[in-house]
Automatic annotation (TrEMBL):
InterPro entries: CDP-OH_P_trans, CDP-OH_PTrfase_TM_dom
A GO molecular function held by the record: phosphotransferase activity, for other substituted phosphate groups
Coiled-coil stretches noted in the UniProt entry, renumbered to this chain: none
Organism lineage string: Bacteria, Pseudomonadati, Acidobacteriota, Terriglobia, Terriglobales
Annotated Gene Ontology cellular component terms: membrane
Keyword Cytoplasm: no
Keyword line: Membrane, Transferase, Transmembrane, Transmembrane helix
GO biological process, one term: phospholipid biosynthetic process
Protein name (Swiss-Prot/TrEMBL): CDP-alcohol phosphatidyltransferase-like enzyme
Stretches that traverse the bilayer: 227-244, 264-287, 293-313, 358-389
Amino acid sequence: MQAVIAIPPFAALIGKQKTTELLMHPVAGVPLLKRIVLTASRAAASEILLVCPAALSDAFPRDFLQEVFRYRSGIRVIQFDKFNPLDTSSWAKLEVHLNDQFLWIPWNWVTTKQFLKSLPLVTMTSVDWAKPAHISLHEVSNDSTRLLPSPDTEGVRVTSPETIARAERFLVAHSGKVLDGIHTTFNRRLCRPFVRLLSHTSITPNAVTFGGVLISVLSAIAFAHGGYLYTVLAALLFYIAGLFDEMDGMLARIKFAESPRGTWLEGFADGLSYLLLFGGITIGLTHRYGRPAALMGILLLVGTILALVATSLQRRRATTADRPNEYLGRMYQLLDMDSGNWISRVVRQLQAFVRRGILVHYVFIFTLIGALPLIFFLATLGAHITWIVTLYFNRRFFAQSFYARATPTVNTIKETL
């Protein structure tokens, strides 16, 4: 897919320095035009056509690309005399560079990759040039699979400091995932003001991850003390650590800082947080119940380690090395496709309850009502069921014969999404 982004002609009239300041104004910590280009790239645009006013010096596009897009290939700069999307002659001159279909994205329209992917295919005669569009140079087919209902316009057109603030709120509000449930959505709402604040600092998502681990250590120490007030404090700290787990991903998405290494680091931090939680609970309950609690705790920790190892191996088999973040979505696809198997149906319904965004709620609630031993028992049972079921699905889904049968077609993926 090709994306076309045009710098307006007035940029050539205000000078190179002011033009650069305008295009590079930070929006949630990322320069405006860089955000537009990278959003197009995340929406599967393999080529970016950047149309610049011809009055700008040759040095501007070259310096611009080296400074801002040095890690992004597939960008072509075309200098153009007063390009106007409303003028058919402008498109006639540009047509030699255009694909049959392309994304039109206004230079100052802040949006999400999901919105760009959902745009229906339209002809040039029906485009509102102030908004993004998926355009065909030829007559659009009547095929109903391509003519989708026009989605509600999502995004903010940046024209002033007020719209920059609105764009940042929009980005933070849309920094979740499609698979977020009610618990995770609630957590992310609590995180929004902090994520927006962090986006204007040099703090990295990995630093936020380590901050969550530190709070998990404090939570484990409080659980180990035992006693009702200490355990309530510990559960509250564990909930806050869970919010840090939400914030690192949200911050990474709005700052385009996602990476395979960051995904694995987040997974490692989650696993360590579970071990700290269960270790602290084991010590605290051992003070109260003695040896039976210690034995149950050892059984829980062994089950947790086995579950973490099994799911890490499954992530490697379910995803490619450069996209480990697609693990959960891939497993949901496979479970849905295998719905004829009752085990797959049950696991698909119950899997969400072992996610950290949900677990933090129940740990806090059960601790508050004095039912921590019940969580202790359920966690022990769940940890061992998890590693056993994970090994079962490793064999069922990733044996060569099933994998070939379960690999979804393009249409299947679209239906699942």
